Amino acid sequence: QVQLQESGPGLVKPSQTLSLTCTNSGGSITTRYSYWSWIRQPPGKGLEWIGKITYSGDTDYNPSLKSRSTIARDTSKNQFTLQLSSVTHEDAAVYYCARTGDDGSPNGGWGQGTQVPVSS
């Protein structure tokens, strides 16, 4: 069973880079045909897919965030990461990692989410 947990700093200042790590303690992120996404939900808004990394290490990003997003992985630790640069207050959200389909649609294995305030 997939078990995911997000970790990272609790607060990010404007203009800084948001860095988060997702640890998968159930199964492997290299499992064939598995896809691993970052998703966020700003206060009062719906879910927004940020991007994903595949079982083979390929990445794909939401076009609206692509220029600021980097997803990577460390297979030895069964982790994948998110870096979102040049953050603003609009980036404040609850950030989730999740196992998804190739299209980014969640198919189980959500983390609990981590709230990331953006404040000076």
Structure notes:
The protein has 120 residues and is an all-beta fold. The strands form two sheets. Strands 5-4-3-8-9 form a five-stranded antiparallel sheet, with no helix packed on it. It is globular and about 40 Å long.
Helix count from the secondary structure assignment:
0
Encode the helix/strand succession as letters. EEEEEEEEE
N-to-C CA distance: 39 Å
Overall morphology: globular
Low-confidence stretches: none
The biggest beta sheet reads: 5 strands, antiparallel
**On the 0-100 scale, what is the average pLDDT?**
95
Structural class: mainly beta
Please estimate the helix content. Answer: under 10%
Strand content: 35-45%
Q: What is the count of β-strands?
A: 9
CA-based gyration radius:
13 Å
For the biggest β-sheet, the strand order reads 5-4-3-8-9
Main traits of this protein?
120 residues; mainly beta; 5-stranded antiparallel sheet; 9 strands; globular
SSE arrangement:
Layout: E1 4-7, E2 18-24, E3 35-41, E4 48-54, E5 59-61, E6 69-74, E7 79-84, E8 93-100, E9 114-116
Antiparallel strand pairs: 1-2, 2-7, 3-4, 3-8, 4-5, 6-7, 8-9
Outline of the structure:
By secondary structure, this protein is mainly β. 0% of the residues lie in helices and 42% in strands.
